């Protein structure tokens, strides 16, 4: 069963991981200005235009820059998101191209999260 599209994660699936799973690496690819207005708890801001460079960094450099351990290529819960889903999908596709086999896009993105969370 070949899946040519971007792998996605639903609000319910993500909600079950946020704050509970030690494996979750949630990357917010929006601009710093957008993130300043609100973000999903525990997310790391890596703007879309810097995602490829970040994922190509050596692990020490990544840790210094973002304050977290760089995800392994087989990281089980690597999730990208943006405001409405498009940039998150682009980042997820880029991650797949770089070998991050389990990368997923939260297609509902921050717009859905903020509505459901009442923020």
Automatic annotation (TrEMBL):
Gene3D superfamilies for this protein: Rhodanese-like domain
InterPro entries documented for this protein: Rhodanese-like_dom, Rhodanese-like_dom_sf
Domain Rhodanese residues, every copy: 20-118
Domain of life: Eukaryota
Entry protein name: Rhodanese domain-containing protein
UniProt lineage: Eukaryota, Metazoa, Chordata, Craniata, Vertebrata
